[in-house]
């Protein structure tokens, strides 16, 4: 990325104007992902900057990145409703156009957590919450992964016909609850289990449980809740021998490693995957030096 890309990415219109008009930087140069200045400006959510690039500098509003993203995909992450409307109504960007991974603008809106943007896509542009991308994820999945309790509660209260989406499996056999556990949001997880009746015992195709996903998040309170209140197995191994402790180590959460060691008398130096792959291997593989040091110093 050039200085100009960085300037646009952060929405600095004054610096962008200086680099273009005074320093004569190349406005047509793309970054390594094929993103143009308009893509970065849309990502920043700066409406005036996007307008400046398109109307005054002649940048294309319809350019597509190497991964098939348009300015509309990036604007959908920005929380700027006016910018999204402008790109669709004035520049004719398609709200139903998927990127190369099958992700639609409404999926990116779900990642932003903006309810008004969700409503815009649903009501004005007839986008469905049930549409999935290549992994089998829909709007529910993307909002849960970010831990957006308000977003999920809005959908379940205003659009009860979509509650069934909470119980569908993706292409890896995972359910949305797994992603909520990965987010570490206890309020969201308990809402799904207690009120939406999501299956806390569900496993994906490799037999990973909610406990493993909670360990990924680093939220020890959530891990303890799932084990102590919902009675999940603390050390269940998946079909490859991978346990929740490996998940904690791979994501660098030494406090969870320490808790397991104390609570369940786990021999963390000899806790292996199928008697071959130790926790130290996991730490080294993922570059978690502090975890590796913790294991070596035990």
Automatic annotation (TrEMBL):
SUPFAM superfamilies named in the record: Ankyrin repeat
Query: Mind listing the UniProt keywords for this protein, alphabetically?
Result: ANK repeat, Repeat
Q: Where are the ANK repeats?
A: 33-54, 172-205
* PROSITE patterns per record: ANK_REP_REGION, ANK_REPEAT
Q: Which top-rank group of organisms is this from? A: Eukaryota
| Keyword Repeat appears in the UniProt entry | yes
InterPro entries in the cross-refs: Ankyrin_rpt, Ankyrin_rpt-contain_sf
Query: Which Pfam families does the record cross-reference, listed alphabetically?
Result: Ank_2 (PF12796), Ank_4 (PF13637)
KW Repeat (keyword) present? yes
Name used for this protein in its record: Uncharacterized protein
Q: Which organism is it from?
A: Amphimedon queenslandica
């Amino acid at each position: 990325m050039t200085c100009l890309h960085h300037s646009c990415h952060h929405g600095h219109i004054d610096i962008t104007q200086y680099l273009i008009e005074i320093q004569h930087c190349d406005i047509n140069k793309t970054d390594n992902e094929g993103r143009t200045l308009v893509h970065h400006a849309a990502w920043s959510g700066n409406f005036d900057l996007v307008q400046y690039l398109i109307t005054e500098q002649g940048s294309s509003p319809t350019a597509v990145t190497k991964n098939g993203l348009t300015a509309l995909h990036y604007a959908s992450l920005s929380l700027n409703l006016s910018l999204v409307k402008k790109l669709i109504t004035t520049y004719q960007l398609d709200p139903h156009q998927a990127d190369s991974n099958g992700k639609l603008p409404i999926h990116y809106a779900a990642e932003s957590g903006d309810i008004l943007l969700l409503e815009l896509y649903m009501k004005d542009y007839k986008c469905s919450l049930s549409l999935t991308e290549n992994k089998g994820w829909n709007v529910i999945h993307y909002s849960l992964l970010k831990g957006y309790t308000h977003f999920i509660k809005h959908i379940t209260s205003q659009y009860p016909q979509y509650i069934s989406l909470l119980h569908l499996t993706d292409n890896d056999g995972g359910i949305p609850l797994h992603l909520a556990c990965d987010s570490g949001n206890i309020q969201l997880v308990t809402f799904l289990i207690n009120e939406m009746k999501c299956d806390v015992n569900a496993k994906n195709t490799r037999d990973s449980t909610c406990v493993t996903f909670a360990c990924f998040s680093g939220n020890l309170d959530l891990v303890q809740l799932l084990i102590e209140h919902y009675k999940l197995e603390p050390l269940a191994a998946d079909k490859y021998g991978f346990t929740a402790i490996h998940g904690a180590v791979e994501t660098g959460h030494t406090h969870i490693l320490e808790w397991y060691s104390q609570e369940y008398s786990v021999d963390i130096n000899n806790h292996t995957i199928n008697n071959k792959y130790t926790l130290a291997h996991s730490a080294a593989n993922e570059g978690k030096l502090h975890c590796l040091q913790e294991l070596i110093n035990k």
